Amino acid sequence: MDEASGWQWLCSECREDLPIVEPPCCRTCGYPYYGLVESSRSCPHCATLEPLFDEGRTLLLHRGSGAELVKCLKYRQGTHLMSDIRQLAAQRPWLAEYLRDAVVLPVPLHPRKERERGFNQSALLAKAFVEGTGQGRVEQLLQRVRDTPTQTRLTRVERVRNLKNAFALKPKTTLAMDLTYIMVDDVFTTGSTLNACAQALRASGATKLKVLTLAHG
After folding, report:
1. Confidence band for 188, pLDDT divided at 50, 70 and 90
2. pLDDT value at position 46?
């Protein structure tokens, strides 16, 4: 373990190569703006999304070591990396402010998929973000009610169709109109998954919705 910095698994070279996202960035999806930009809500990555959430942020770009981090977490049983992700969250002052007083909601996996993988990476990320910043609280309020095919090779239109009515609030769950709910997922690709979750939350009375992802791309 790197005692000086708190990092445990990521080597110094990997840490230095992480494509970390800092402001200024797109308010909708969190993709960074480079150079001088005009004030704008959306960027080309999410211009056609029609988001059902109010704001979005991301910690990394899904490329290079950022993509490897996501791949290791999801497909190589890389749960040991959560200590380093907590450290990454702890070093982002903007993230603590973003999570302040919020209810943090992991994007759920279908029970079959979670049994196969052994964990829900979004739930682990939500916990790491809250623990790393000391802000927000995690609640498991959403459930995946349809076992949909993987989104990997689908177009944006196909993803929207694939996720229709895939998410719902858990039974006997109520939402507070005055609370901010932040949905957490591993990667922001087209935003279709997060929009599908937002649709279920809006239908159940949520008025303040944000999203947060580990990576974008």
Report:
1. very high
2. 85
